[in-house]
Amino acid sequence: MEDVLDSGRKRKNSDESDQNVFPSKSKARSSHSSKRLKTMSEEEVRLEKLVFGESSLFSRRNDFNRQFDPKDVEDLDSGLDEGYELGIGEFEGAMDVMTTSEDKTCRSVSDRKALQPAWHDDDDIPNSRGSVGVSGNSLLWARLNQSSRDQPSRCVATSDSEDSDDEQSANSDDDGDLLRHCGDLLTGKRATVHYGSRGGSIPSGVLRFRKVNALNRATHFEGPLITNVQFHPTSSVAAVAGVAGVASILEVDGRNNAKLSSIQFERFPVHCARFSTDGMELLVGSKSHSHLYSYDLVGGRTTKIHINRALGTTNAKNFEISPDGDHIALAGRWGAVHIFSARTKEWITTLQMTGDVNCMSFSSDGLHLYTYGAAGEVWVWSMASHSCVHRFVDEGSFGGSALAVAPSGRFIACGCPSGNVNLYDRDEAFKPAINGPSRPTPICTISNLVTPITSLKFDPSSELLFLSSSEKAHAARLFHMPSRTVFINFPGRTPRMSNPLCVDFSPHGGYLTIGSSKGTALLYRLSHFGSY
Questions:
Q1: Which class in CATH covers the domain with range 209-526?
Q2: 264 versus 147: which is more confidently predicted?
């Protein structure tokens, strides 16, 4: 037994001696390895300086590592105060907080705040901090400002032979930048914008289009009913509003359709929303209230617009803004149409027609207002004299339900509760009558729908007419004006369309959006048009 214990003690002592020996060998090996790596690093630095010069990337990295200890880097300020909100103008400064260079390593937030801008741009607006930048609605303002500068003119026709190589290369860069933001669009100072196809008018029969992601895919909280959709007049931006009292401002690219802003109107279901002509504000109205709200897209402020009680208005569900930006027409009771100044929101005058006013539409120049009422007559008002200059009877109609005037000014479309749409030539409709209103003959009658027409909209080229009824699912058609026929493949199989409630075309016809009764604003890309 003692022999066994002695042998065990010897073995234990031998193991302890081995444990004491191995660490010294490991330390020696580690020291040797570090000297070898140090020698290799110095050799690499010498060779790198010989090949690339003194200011090599490896030497700058070593200088940075010698200046800052890795433990100290973790304690560096990130450059953002807690709860600090970044704007577009301040974002570039925030990105510079962790930028390294040969003469600048890291910039603290106090140094960044002390910097002054190199110049002051007249397009910038002062923010709440008193410096030049953007307001709290900075993302929306930057998008509007960028789009208005990048957006092509409505009709630009120039020959490519007049452009130099330098101009063409610069324009290709501009095209690529806009394509990244707005999808398959054409832009650039020298780009040619066509109404109709890239080679002529739109062919009939089959429409070239594709359904893209929903316009409000990033929100979907405007309510179960999308009551209004409208594209911004100068930027690739659109507004979607619904009965939940929410109006969302969204970027239009067909892929992400990112949300730029959302406005909640308390206990105010939105039934009508319109961008101002200059695109700086959004006006919303409701059938449950007699006042309007104005949302400032630049400042992000909401203003309540009271309407004089003496006018007797009970709701603001039906109003239009003139294309020239001078007037707002609000439908009142018993055939009254109240005219307000679009700039000051002050009442100007009241127009009176026979029967209730069901729908209204301005001419493309804003000089005339068309009103269509329950008596089946279309009244034409002059905005200069505020008087009725013409009346005509819509054939076979017992009450108007929808009205649209072509941007070209040539056609007038009238929809009625029977589901028919009468299309008139303006010259024929404006022929004077001996007694009472004139009775023109429509150039054609569209009878593809059997429920009351609730939406009519011409595209910017006046070649397409959209008609729909909100009382039946998938009751939407696109009418081809030159051939007087509807497209057989539209709207196609779109199970999410349900009942179409509202519609709008983008400023150059490239996109079509339809608000549905399922809380979705459907978006279609019309491939025939080459611009937003």
A1: mainly beta
A2: 264
